[in-house]
Design goal:
Elements: E1 2-5, H1 16-30, E2 35-37, E3 44-48, H2 52-62, E4 71-73, H3 91-100, E5 105-110, H4 117-120, E6 125-129, H5 134-143, E7 147-148, H6 163-170, E8 176-179, E9 190-194, E10 199-203, H7 209-216, E11 220-222, H8 233-240, H9 251-258, E12 281-286, H10 289-306, E13 312-315, E14 327-330, H11 338-355, E15 360-364, H12 372-382, E16 387-389
Parallel strand pairs: 1-8, 2-8, 4-6, 5-9, 10-11, 12-15, 12-16, 13-14, 13-15
Antiparallel strand pairs: 2-3, 3-7, 4-7, 5-6, 9-10
Bound molecules: threonylcarbamoyladenylate and magnesium ion (MG).
């Protein structure tokens, strides 16, 4: 298995050694190999999207259910025609791509004839994304084909945001990894589908709902599945009533969503799987700062009475009163907004705390607007719905 270390300077430029490494990795992709590579969101596990056998290797390496389709990545707008028929796309989809690519946005489009059936999981559609990362784009450009790439973790594990996390899950199961350093966004892309009149978000991610509406010129809704009580958003939205700031979904709709109507099968297969789960049990606390800290302290005291030996990790904007023996604490560096720092670090923290033997991980939730929607969605999944409103 190859590990190609590539250095990218602050302007996104690569030296000759990096370019040679990328050429090597691209040759491996063209020959049907599976290669992990960095994007601005998380590391992806790539295969030629036109090669069914290569795509099957991705599912195998990850242990991914065969009905969960892969996202296809392109290096430039010129490559869109390799994935779908660009002229047939609804206007709002085209406007969103033009404004928000390269970036953490995946648009569901009708699949072109060459996209392998395994990549689509048999669906007539495919998710396409133009990532904002010089290594990803150079690799795809050199490969000369669209690159199907889910996150480069074992299925059910937190997504990898550096090459070490990829190797921890997949060493020996893939042909190589291009190590381009840590990812900047830290949560996966937003997955959206458009008609001529509106958009529906299947997965909140690095591009906000607000940005999608501004770019596409049409209303963009959360898919109903994201508003179910266990999906994180609904809980955080209800709670944000207390703080007075109404989030993007009308109050009536939020409350209706919490009644969990029968929504039928999820249109985006990934919605139904429990993702991003570390071995420790995760608890998310949502509410005003002081109340969250108090609730965490109380939770800890109760645990200590029963299991004094358990290691606990705490992730919060501030961790006053929580530093004690057996507690690993993280808060963002001074001056860094909590939501952005949490997005960037959450998967790394889940893995690191688990490796340090944490049995329980307590996390302060965030307001579900902007990037916060993606963070709350991932936290609620990692917590399997253990979201405490305080
Ligand atoms: O940021 C990202 O999107 C990363 C990097 C590597 O680009 N990739 C990623 O891929 O997160 P993955 O496979 O872990 O997530 C793909 C999501 C799944 O929830 C899947 O169900 C959904 O996109 N998806 C893919 N194709 C779809 C389709 N045709 N229709 C509906 N949902 C689709
Ligand atoms: Mg994934």
């Amino acid at each position: 298995m190859n590990v190609w270390r590539v250095h990218v300077d602050a302007d996104g430029n690569m030296d000759e050694a990096a370019q040679a490494a990328i050429a090597d990795a691209a040759a491996c992709l063209r020959a049907g190999g599976v290669i992990a590579f960095p994007t601005e969101t998380v590391y992806g596990l790539g295969a030629n999207a036109w090669d069914d056998a290569a795509a099957r290797k991705v599912f195998q390496a990850k242990g991914r259910p065969a009905d969960n389709p892969l996202i296809v990545h392109i290096a430039d707008m010129d490559m869109l025609g390799m994935v779908t028929c660009p002229d047939a796309l609804p206007e709002p989809a085209r406007r969103a791509m033009a404004a928000l690519w390269p970036g953490p946005l995946t648009v569901i489009v009708p699949a072109g004839p060459r996209i392998a059936a395994t990549v689509r999981a048999g669906l007539p559609t495919v998710g396409v994304r133009l990532p904002d990362h010089p290594v990803a784009r150079a690799l795809i450009r050199a490969a000369g084909c669209p690159v199907a790439a889910p996150s480069a973790n074992r299925s059910g594990r937190p997504s990898p945001t550096d090459a070490a996390a990829v190797l921890a899950d997949l060493a020996g199961r893939i042909d190589g990894v291009v190590d381009g350093g840590p990812c900047q966004v830290g949560v996966e892309s937003t997955v959206v589908a458009f008609t001529a009149e509106r958009g529906v978000i299947y997965r909140p991610g690095g591009v906000t709902r607000e940005a999608l509406m501004a770019a596409s010129g049409v209303p963009v809704d959360w898919h109903g599945h994201l508003l179910r009580p266990d999906a994180g958003l609904a809980a955080a939205m209800m709670q944000s009533d207390i703080e007075g700031e109404p989030p993007g979904v009308p109050r009536a709709e939020r409350h209706a969503a919490s009644g969990a109507p029968d929504l039928g099968p999820p249109p985006s297969p990934g919605m139904k799987y429990r993702h991003y789960a570390p071995d420790a049990d995760v608890h998310v606390f949502v509410g005003p700062n002081g109340r969250v800290l108090a609730a965490m302290r109380a939770w800890l005291a109760t645990l200590r009475a029963r299991h004094p030996e358990d290691t606990v990790a705490v992730i919060a904007e501030r961790t006053e009163g929580l530093a004690q023996a057996g507690v690993l604490a993280w808060s963002p560096p001074p001056g860094t907004p909590y939501t952005e720092a949490l997005a960037r670090e959450i998967y790394r923290l889940l893995r690191a705390f688990e490796a340090q033997g944490a049995r329980h991980i307590l996390v302060q939730g965030v307001a579900p607007d902007g990037l916060g929607a993606a963070v709350m969605n991932r936290l609620a999944k990692a917590a399997s719905g253990r979201v405490h409103l305080v």
